[in-house]
Automatic annotation (TrEMBL):
<protein>
    <submittedName>
        <fullName>Multidrug ABC transporter permease</fullName>
    </submittedName>
</protein>
<keyword id="KW-0812">Transmembrane</keyword>
<feature type="transmembrane region" description="Helical">
    <location>
        <begin position="102"/>
        <end position="124"/>
    </location>
</feature>
<feature type="transmembrane region" description="Helical">
    <location>
        <begin position="59"/>
        <end position="81"/>
    </location>
</feature>
<feature type="transmembrane region" description="Helical">
    <location>
        <begin position="176"/>
        <end position="196"/>
    </location>
</feature>
<feature type="transmembrane region" description="Helical">
    <location>
        <begin position="228"/>
        <end position="247"/>
    </location>
</feature>
<keyword id="KW-1133">Transmembrane helix</keyword>
<feature type="transmembrane region" description="Helical">
    <location>
        <begin position="18"/>
        <end position="39"/>
    </location>
</feature>
<feature type="transmembrane region" description="Helical">
    <location>
        <begin position="149"/>
        <end position="169"/>
    </location>
</feature>
<keyword id="KW-0472">Membrane</keyword>
């Protein structure tokens, strides 16, 4: 496993798409944080407060989209260029390759998300007025501390979810299209269906992930925001397990 992780790390560092998608993740996330700071001028009551949640909105709306695409590319790039045969010859146990890719990128995504969250906070504070900047004390703010662990956890869950989709489909465009449609449209549209729409709206995986990130309770008193993360995690693990099973059975 250790040698497989090392080889996968070498592949990751030598893949151009990994670098430009990482740069795009940072630019989009930090760009929105910078905008939040610039708008916190303190000229009126609306612009006086700098909220931690506002500074990382770009990370959730835009950065996580890039993260999902990057996760899929980690798994599908080899199939796109036909390198998977050599990989499986070197490591006959295919599940080891899949787990190594998942574990490696999971750690990277979690660490990158945590660092980006902190950068968003401090960049917004640096660009805000003195009065607005003083309203956000990063390590003492309850919302900021919650975001510091919730966003990395959400990143890890997304990596697992998208890894499963990528292993099942093996094709970048198809996997990206499915994940983005599911994330942005499918659950919202299906929620309008008569009778079953209410349940789809409540129990959709991305709906529950959103509730976890925003700390919003939407179903009943026994199903809080943290349960939303557990529920999404269950979906992610099932998809990842199914992806490994399909990987083992399909031709290389």
């Amino acid at each position: 496993m250790i040698n497989t992780i090392r080889s996968e790390w070498t592949k990751l560092l030598t893949t151009k798409s990994f670098w430009w998608t990482t740069a795009l993740f940072l630019v989009l996330s930090l760009g929105y944080a910078a905008l939040s700071g610039v708008l916190a001028t303190g000229d009126n009551l609306y612009s006086l407060w700098l909220f931690a949640g506002n500074t990382v909105t770009g990370l959730y709306l835009l950065g996580f989209v890039v993260l999902m695409i990057q996760t899929i590319m980690v798994f599908t790039t080899e199939f796109r260029f036909g390198y998977q045969t050599q990989t499986f010859l070197a490591t006959p146990k295919r599940w080891v390759v899949a787990v190594a890719k998942w574990l490696l990128y999971l750690v990277f995504a979690v660490v990158m998300t945590f660092i980006t969250v902190l950068l968003c906070f401090y960049l917004a504070k640096a660009l805000a007025s003195d009065a607005a900047s003083s309203t956000l004390v990063v390590w003492e703010d309850e919302q900021a501390r919650r975001i510091m662990w919730q966003y990395p956890v959400a990143a890890g869950l997304l990596v697992t979810f998208c890894s499963g989709i990528a292993l099942l489909l093996r094709q970048t465009a198809g996997a990206v299209a499915l994940v983005l449609m599911w994330h942005f449209a499918v659950e919202n549209l299906l929620s309008f269906l008569p009778r079953i729409g209410e349940y789809i709206g409540k129990y959709g995986p991305f709906t529950n992930l959103y509730n976890f990130i925003t700390d919003y309770q939407s179903i009943d008193p026994g199903w809080d925001a943290t349960m939303g993360a557990v529920y999404f995690g269950a979906w992610a693990l099932v998809l990842f397990a199914a992806g490994i099973i399909v990987l083992e059975k399909r031709d290389a």
